[in-house]
Amino acid sequence: MVQRLLEPGEIESLDHTAIPRLLLPRPAELYAARAERLRQLATNSIKGIPVDEALASYVGLMAELVQAQADVVKTLPPAGVPLPGQELMRVAHEHNMPPLPVTGARPAEWRAVFAAILDRLEARVAGQPQLLTALDALRGLTEAQLEGAADAVLGEFAEGIEPAQAPFVAAALQVTWSVMAAQLDERWAQPLVTGTLCPVCGSHPVASVIRIGGQSQGYRYLHCAVCASEWHMVRVKCSCCEANSKVAYQGLTAADADPVAENVAAAKEGKMLNKANDPTRVARAETCDECHSYRKIFNQEHDYNVDPLADDLASLVLDVLVSELGYARASGNPLLRLGTPA
């Protein structure tokens, strides 16, 4: 049974120091902020996340795609994609299953969202013939092909979709599920048997983020790759196997950085080294020697505007370095199809 709604007086009496276990998305703000973040990343303007020229053009294209997501969200009413029936969600609640599962039947509205995103994107890239050709190919997919592509994206299957088409299909699915998740009463979302999957839709997280502000101050959340919900997981715990004995953090340090000398200089002046807004701590890889996997973690304490999905996409150099150490990526980024995740 879903818990009854609390009266105003009861709400005021709650323990407001409790950690918010679930943060539902705000699509009207999410995609516009993400598009801006991607534009900044594409121009190599974010300290701590270096983006080379080859990747920058792709990140810039994804900024246009995410802006198209933002434009489409603005055209949708608050209930633009209806929630599943109460009985379906009640069964999910009673069995600790996600109320908006990405498995099974999808809301038919997602295909209209897909078409609208392509229309918005076409208007934004009118001078790029190759991209326009790609958009025409996407429009030419039959309903069966499109649904098969959605299956491949949501299931992270290697087959069933062209890698170049995957981000565009993923973009429509993200809008669809985030709009549904935004309408959800969070009490429908029970903790799952595993803390490594989204309690709202059952998808894998794309990355994790340390949040600041309010009751979320300093806590780590996993960010869903599909519906953009975030759920709390304690720090120093593997977000893939949930072990905590062999977790470590790998980061990027500027070639000219000398943290030892920096600390010595600070000590001579009788002060501690100020690590606020430290670019080397914005993006790190959380590695686990139990399952030999990794997932990135981004720190809002050092860059207020971090976006887990955008920053994950742009920090491919960190993927390369951590992979060379023998760790496998735990799950993929929906805006980049590199192959089958570990």
From TrEMBL:
MF GO annotations: ferric iron binding
Domain FdhE N-terminal span(s) in chain numbering: 19-191
Highest taxon listed in the record's lineage: Bacteria
Gene Ontology biological-process annotations: protein maturation
Annotated FdhE central domain residues: 197-235
Limits of the FdhE C-terminal domain: 278-336
Keyword field contains Transmembrane: no
A GO cellular component entry from the record: cytosol
A Pfam family reported for this protein in Swiss-Prot or TrEMBL: FdhE_C
Keyword presence, Cytoplasm: yes
Subcellular localization, as worded in the UniProt entry: Cytoplasm
Keywords: Cytoplasm
Annotated InterPro entries: FdhE-like_sf, FdhE_C, FdhE_central, FdhE_N, Formate_DH_accessory
Record function comment: Necessary for formate dehydrogenase activity.
Family note: Belongs to the FdhE family.
Protein name (Swiss-Prot/TrEMBL): Protein FdhE homolog
Gene: fdhE
